[in-house]
User: Fold this.
Amino acid sequence: MAKGKVSINEFYCKGCELCVSVCPKNVLKLSETKINEAGYNPAEVVSDDCIACTSCAKMCPEVAITVEKIG
Ligand code: SF4
Ligand code: SF4
Assistant:
């Protein structure tokens, strides 16, 4: 299965959680400790199980997610 590296631009994230709910591998979670400049808890990567399906990137209304295929 493909492996991916997902990056989130926390500056643009508005904490809507759409990426969290769409990820089939539970790779993403809203941060419980960080708050970005706009006042939202941004999404963060919590596991390395990403399969590069790109669903999170397609779903993100802020285009804050980049997915790189690494294998
Ligand atoms: S690319 Fe797919 S598996 Fe990887 S974090 Fe996004 S939704 Fe999850
Ligand atoms: S879908 Fe985009 S804006 Fe919404 S929580 Fe995820 S990264 Fe943030």
About this structure: Residues 8, 13-19, 43, 59-62, 64-65 surround iron/sulfur cluster (ligand 2) (CB under 6 Å). The longest strand covers residues 4-8.
